[in-house]
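Obj.: predict assembly geometry.
Materials: sequence records (below).
Method: joint structure prediction, all chains together.
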Amino acid sequence: MTQNFEPKILGIFCNWCSYTGADLAGTSRMKYAPNMRIVRVMCSGRVDPQFILKAYKEGADGVLVAGCHPGDCHYIEGNFKTIGRMQILEKMLAQFGIEKERFRLEWISAAEGDRVMHVVNEMTTQVKKLGPLNWKEVSRSKDIGHCEEPKATKQSPLNK
Amino acid sequence: MTQKLKVGIYWAASCGGCEIATLEIAENILKFIEVADLVLCPCIADFKYDDVRAYPDGYIDVCFFNGGIRNSEAKEIAELLRKKSKTLVAFGACANWGGIPALANLYTKDAMIERSYITTESNDNPQGTLPQTSYKMPEGELHLPKLFDSVHKLDDVVDVDYYVPGCPPVAKQIWSCIEAIAAGKLPPKGSVIGVGDKSVCDECPFEKKTEGVRISKFKRPHLEKPDLTKKAELNNKPQCLLEQGFVCMGSATRSGCEAQCLKANMPCRGCYGPAEGVEDQGAKIASAIGSLVDSQGNSERSAEIVAQIVDPVGTFYRFGMGNSMLRVKKL
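Observations (raw structure tokens):
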């Protein structure tokens, strides 16, 4: 199953650095895993955690957010906001039981085409190893009222 | 004389606080009795389910349904009441989004049962007895409702006409809803009623500084007091609790409660649900709070500050887990 599994990874890239970096990777004819679909945003500070949760809910196996290196932001401090947001989101994803390899925040400048290639390849391999996320099945959204009998045989730790 | 309104109030997975909040309409209850008759309310009157089953379809004019769908009984009665009611109102946070009980969606059902019946420190259950759904007696077999794997909101199970949020909804808003229903002046189906259309910040007695405030330390309301001597530059009101480092849900939460908690110097807990235009309340507040973290562009510094937020999911989705995008924990 994992052998044939091709993960769907959503990339959310900032217009000024990371997307241009991905362009560079393209024009330099670098080859990287075709598993990532990029959405271009004007700034990584525009990325609302809602987008990422929605991606998982709608079937993404991993999400990669990329922006300019801190200090290089086109809007001066846009990506300073991204740092705090994504770190809180990482904590939340851990509580929801989503493996940390499924989410990644990277700083990729316009000159780092090779970094795009490296990050996407690495993330694809990691997510492939984890297998599909399949959140629709996880959230059992259509299966209201699924229940099994509690097991009466469970031994109390107080007896031990 | 026109016929009196027939009103039902039902509780599913809830604490009973919504019924008590309904009584808070105080002397208006006399006016209520003038225009309405209760036809179901397990909290205060002894109606049986069979009484409800005997009503003709659409007999109940308005049914206020509070509580989430936790077990097969709640689901069955929700479906029954949908059939018997002209208007079904999801009343309170639990019916709207699962409420506090839906926090159990972060655990498996087995883990929850083990914690409740076995490992809780004050339990005395040496045989490890667990609740069963059927039991054989000499007189015959008894059945209890089945517990579901996760908590659902009311509109996961049936069609809902109106939503009244809050934990509990505040008395003034409840009364405005009852008045609107009695006068037949209701907005289009599917509306959230008894609320404001802005965020809690709009009604809040605290005030944001104009620019540049960042959080370098998060505080918890039971460990530290807000500093009321700190004033905002704009109008000399006390400084916003979020800016002081308390995790306040106000900016992602719908107004309507008149910022009751904040008037008592407590940060907002988010019981009025996502503000207009917000889909996922928890992610939205994570966005707001995350942007305030004083990272200075340094990931390590930011991580140290973010680590001070204890239990972000439980705090941000305190009432909204059943309505969040992810809804349950992956097992």
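Conclusions so far: The two ends of chain A are 41 Å apart (CA to CA).
To do: check interface contacts against the pulldown list.
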